[in-house]
Amino acid sequence: MSTLGTIAPGPPVNGRRGSSSMAMRSASWRVTDRIGLGIAWLLGLIFCAICAAIVLFLLIEGLRFIRPSMLVTNPRAGFTQSQTGGFLGPMIGTVIVALIAIGMAGPLGVAIGVWLAEFGRPRAMARIAESTIEMLAGAPTVVLALFGVLLFESEPLGFLSVTNSNGVVFGKSFFAAGTILALVALPLVVTTVREGLQAIPDHVREASYALGKTRIATTRRILLPAIRPSVITGTMLGVGRVVGDTAIILLLLGDTPLQGVGSAPLLSTLRGTGSTLTSYIYNNAPTGELNQPNKAYAAAFVLLAIVLTLNVLVDVSGRRARERRWS
Amino acid sequence: MDLSDDQRAELWLGALVCGVVVLLLAMLGFILREAWPSFAHNGLSWFGSGGSADRQLQSIFDSGTANGPQQYEIHAWPMIWSTVLTTTGAVAISFVCSLFVAAFLVKFAPDPIKRVLEPVVRLLASVPSVIYGLVGVLVIVPFIGQHLITESERASVTPVIQLSGYSLLAAVLILTVMTAPVMIAIFAEGLRSVPRGWLEGSLALGVNEWRTFWKIAVRTARPALIAGTVLACARALGESVMLFMVSGSVGFAPNPADGLIVLFEPSRGLAPTILQNTDGLSSPPMAHTLYAIAALLLFSALTLSLVGWAVKRPMKRYQHAGGVA
Amino acid sequence: MELSHPPAIRRLHANQPSAVARPPVTKGPRVTTIPQRHNRVQTLVIERMAVQQWSVSYGGNPAVRDVSLPIRQGEVLALIGPSGCGKTTLLRSLNRLTELTPNATSAGWISLDGVDISTLEPTALRRRVTMVFQQPNPFPMSIFDNVAYVLREQASRRPRRAALKAAVNDALARAGLLDEVAGNLDHPALRLSGGQQQRLCIARALAANPEVLLLDEPCSALDPQSTRVIEELIVRLREEVAVVIVTHNLQQASRIADHVAFMYLGELVEYGTARTVFERARQERTREYVSGVFG
Question: What string of DSSP letters covers A209-259?
């Protein structure tokens, strides 16, 4: 039984209240506030519309011009667009270049990320390393491409590409392009690994140290497997960037059909030149040499499909990364 | 000396990190070394204007393959100006739009729209620039050329430059769409990490949600706003492929004195210039010139990062709890 | 009202008739003697808010069941009870903060000066009924900006700093902070000590000139010295505003409260003056809680 003092009678019981709607809350807003909200809505929806427009446009145009034969034939010379073949070579080129880049950037990125998060002494070097990686993340890809030209056209690295009879190193090969693309993907992997490791609370590490495990063993056996979804996310983000890059390909891959150098089976392709979907699109656009818009649309469709798939995979893996709970 | 596992690992990893850092610093050094002849020959007039940049580039290239004195003279102002215009235009528009969209995404959008908008932002961020360029050159450029530029406008500038749809407007529009997703993602992350206690405290004082969001959340997220802007600027600076396809390939400095027509004038920024002249790398003076442009780009990106870092520092004063006063 | 019976007191010797199943009167922390109360000035008591048959559920789980009590200016009302008994939910209902939770539903009515608060604009209501939270949450601005925050938002045109100075100083004085920070109002608020931050939050809440001040365990994160200062402040403030304080610290409630409402499992078990509840509670459950049988 509760004891009550006298209470002024109130209005009759009103039982309907749930959470109030925006409309009710916005009644007390000023005009500027409401205009602001309106702008936010407008821009948000415009943004969605632009994305939808781009994707739909490429979808429609791509479907109009793509033929299954394009996926399995190589480009060849011809007079009309229907005679110039497909883009199998470029597709293979994209895959090769992505594999090389991730093959290098993946392990390297994990190593650097681990060092930054788990060791990181002396402090000065850690700061320099972080700043350098940040500089790399912000560097224009053309600049990296030029650096690649400098690097791979030099004598010592001539074995990675063709050296012609005058002793001039050609400097363009899958190796060259892949290496520089690894530099492009590196900051993404490093950042993802580092943040993933920093998100693991200390008590997990302490539990492992208390059992007598060394730092490196803890990292290898406990921490790295734990951040595997993050690593996969970072890697796939890197692949996304690598697959979409054009400037480095144009400068470091040469624009030829897939042709190998030398006779060793795998190495010859890697030392050789080729092209990728991005350079194919670039060349077939009206501003490029070949000017075949239909082919460009078809190839763009395929490229966009690859990027979309990667995005979905990143989404899924990112969700799995977020589901990890530590406490 | 018998090293423990940990010490060995630290040494190896440290050496690896050292190696990468040395490589990257060497990159800086090499590029500067290759760029030096071009800067040395031109001095400060490298950055100035004078003469047709295209003709200068051509003569530089020719002098490399011919026998005779090597030409280095270049006045790169038209390209610098073009880069400045496209970058600042795109980042300015993108900043405003991205802030609103990020606010919308974090707070004011209803759940179903939120679920659609987030993947949309991520998707747009990962579309390759060559595809943006393709859409630009096949859709936007003809649209501008055929529908937006009138004959009288064309006639008014014919003696100087041809207007054909490859224009500043197309470049800025597409660059805005390219940089917006990056900014939105970083802004949204910053806005989400505002402590709930502050927002609740403001609401409990009788301030409505919109103003709470702007006064507290946006103010707190200012470092993220700076970071996003710097990153977007860096991306815009380094964009070569899309700009090459869309902004025209003429070394022309758009002239604001022309009024609105300036939007329709073609130009070519620093990064697209490198791309256009990659065949010229075999000619030494051309190579030096291109490396000089690359050095300028790299230096600008670095300066941007520094400026961003410097601007963020005083903001930290009010946001972190210190010791007992 | 269903109350489960508390566990039976263990008897030492079953056949000793003198062993009684009553909470032993021991020399332990005796809450039943009211500790030294802060010096009180007799105040004029005016009824400000009335809660009538108020219930709140979160997605079907009832948090507050059918509570009715008055809130008066001139006195401090303490809501006490074990964790999860609904006192914080009741407090947050008074300024409609419960509406921020999506799945909250409510029934009954609460009135402020005779007007049903659900008919008021939420933002207008929250300026008349302000709240101070458990964790001090000053905004990441200077002290001056923190206190002036509400004043700036209330004005239709941005007021100049000089115009705000008087109001800011007044609020800081009422919160007992002016002496300590008068020298430097541009100091970042987050650099103050915990107690000072909490007083700043009180000053911020007072700057809006509220009629009711809600305090959600304001001292639970503070050291005893700061707690004492804030308690004295609360007792002084009750003359100007109605104060409702949620606390799990029974000694604190007995030190500062005029009326006490004891809640258990969402229901209002007992409401009465502090003296009554702590010394001669009518309900057995109240007596048990107050003497520490359960918490």
Answer: HHTT--HHHHIIIIIHHHTHHHHHHHHHHHHHHHHT--HHHHHHT-S-SSB
**CB distance C68–A8 less than 8 Å?**
no
Of B202, B216, B325, the CB nearest to C191: B325
Q: Which of B233, B109, B243 is nearest to B170 (CA)?
A: B243
C198 domain-assigned: no
Enumerate the residues of chain A whose CB falls inside 8 A of the CB of residue C109. 10-14
CB atoms within 10 A of CB A20: 14
- Chain A interface mutation, best of B7, B13, B137, B275, highest count of A Cβ atoms under 10 Å: B13
The domain ranges of chain B are 6-317
The neighbouring-strand residues paired with C270 are C262
Any idea of the CA torsion for C149, C154, C157, C163, to the nearest 10 degrees?
A: -60
Tokens 């650097």 locate to: A112
Chains meeting C at 3+ CB pairs closer than 8 A? A, B
What are the boundaries of each domain within chain A? 66-322
C291 touches chain B (CB under 8 A): no
**What digits encode the pLDDT tens for the residues B270-296?**
999 998 888 888 888 888 889 999 999
CATH code of the domain made up of A66-322: 1.10.3720.10
Kind and range of the H or E run holding C51: strand C46-58
Structure tokens at C153: 């938002």
What pLDDT score does B295 carry?
A: 93
Burial of B66 (0-12, 13-18, 19+ CB in 10 A): exposed
Helix axes C143-154, C194-207, angle to 10 degrees: 20
Cβ contact (<8 Å) for B281 and A149? Answer: yes
Helix (DSSP H) and strand (DSSP E) numbers for chain A: 14, 0
Residue B98 has pLDDT above 90, yes or no: yes
Per residue in A238-280, pLDDT (tens digit) is 898 899 899 999 888 877 777 777 677 777 777 778 889 999 8
pLDDT tens by residue, A79-97: 776 667 778 888 888 999 9
Of the partner residues C124, C272, C283, the one whose CB lies closest to the CB of residue A28: C124
Average pLDDT over all residues of chain A: 80
Residues of chain B with Cβ-Cβ distance to A186 below 8 Å are 20
Q: Using CA atoms, how far apart are residues B251 and B257, in angstroms rounded to an integer?
A: 18
Task: Give the chain A residue whose CA is nearest to the CA of C121.
Answer: A28
How far is A33 from chain C, CA to nearest CA, in Å? Answer: 12
| Residues in A touching B177 (Cβ below 8 Å) | 50
Determine the residue among C109, C127, C280 to mutate to test chain A binding: the one whose Cβ has the most chain A Cβ atoms within 10 Å. C109
- B214 CB neighbours in chain A (<8 A) are 36
* Set of chain A residues whose Cβ sits within 8 Å of the Cβ of B209: 25
Question: Residues of C numbered 66-125 whose beta carbons fall under 8 angstroms of chain B's beta carbons: which are they?
Answer: 95, 97, 100, 123-125
Overall domain count for chain C: 1
* Residue range A289-308, pLDDT digits in tens: 888 888 888 889 999 999 98
- Cα–Cα distance measured from residue B96 to residue B101, given in angstroms and rounded to the nearest whole number: 9
How large is the C-alpha radius of gyration of chain B? 24
C-chain CB neighbours of A30 within 8 Å are 156
Which chains form contacts with chain B, at 3 or more CB pairs under 8 Å? Answer: A, C
pTM: 0.82
Structural domain for C284, as ranges = 46-136+213-290
Torsion region of C217: left, alpha or beta (phi above 0 gives left; psi -120 to 50 gives alpha)? left
For residue C93, give how far its alpha carbon lies from the nearest alpha carbon of chain B (Å).
Answer: 11
Q: Is the ipTM of this complex over 0.90?
A: no
Among the residue ranges A159-173, B32-46, B125-139, the one predicted with the least confidence is A159-173
Nearest to C51 by CA among C70, C77, C75: C70
Q: What would be the CATH architecture of the domain defined by B6-317? A: Orthogonal Bundle (1.10)
